[in-house]
Fold this sequence. Notes:
Blueprint: H1 9-49, H2 53-66, H3 70-83, H4 86-100, H5 106-122, E1 124-131, E2 136-139, E3 142-144, E4 150-153, E5 156-163, E6 170-176, E7 181-187, E8 195-202, E9 207-210, E10 213-217, E11 220-224, E12 227-235, E13 238-246, E14 251-257, H6 266-289, H7 301-309
Helix pairs in contact: 1-2, 1-3, 2-3, 3-4, 4-5
Amino acid sequence: MIARRSLSPLTFLACAIAVCAHVGVVHAQDADARAQSRTRFERGVQLLADAAYADAVRELEAARSLYPTASIHFNLGLAYRGTGRARDAIDSFERFLAAVGATGDPARVEEVNRYLRTLRSTLARLRIQVSPPDARVSIDGEPAAVGTTEIALDPGRHAVVATAPGHAEMRREVELAPGSSTTEVLALERVSTRGTLVLDVTPEDASVSLDGAPRGAGDQQIDLDPGAYTLAVSAGGRDVTRAFSIAAGQRLGLSLEVPQGGEDLTWLWVVLGVVAVGAAAGVTAAVLYEPDVQAPLMPNLGVVVTELGAR
Length: 311
């Protein structure tokens, strides 16, 4: 059994002092918040009297965040009403009624209820129907319900954005009249997540392979995932390769021709070899005797053979 130890008088006194100090700090912080709230509130009321509604909203919102009171809710409702923010005005006036409860001044309560009836009648209602059904919709940057639900909005212009995987984003501006009821139908367009390669080969019966895998012969259209590929076209024992990249939704056209030659070109290699040696000697001599003359670039013999063989 664990023996209980009682606090010594000194320990108890220290704890009591600590609790009192904490309460004092809380009260001091609370008093400071109230003082700051009062300053912002008075500034907001003066701006409200000057019909500077947007500035009044800024000051009164700050006052509410510091220390909310019924008076702040009421005046903020008036400021929102002046800026045309009907929904926010309704929210503030409803907070005022909740704060005063049954003890509120009957005349002021009736005034607020009159404001509420007018504001609610001016709200526009928007219903959004969207496809595909799993699309996400936002109105003025805020998530919105879709389907049969009516969304209460302030009259005026609103930005509607709908997104869904595999579909193009849709943006629409809607203008809502006071008290109106509107339905917007948003049909998102499906976009391809693959690219399309349109291949034109010569000769027509040339064999085609992609990344080493056979893809049949001749012209064709191939749907591909986005990425990099190596295409090879073969005919008559000769190959032509081409590296390419394709993006989602891209339609890429490629034309590849395999050079063809019917006769035996073995003798041509020998002749070209002799010519190449002679040309090299000539170039060397030119370099030796005319050091200021730049040596010409030698052509690729493979290209020469292809061109001659094609005649």
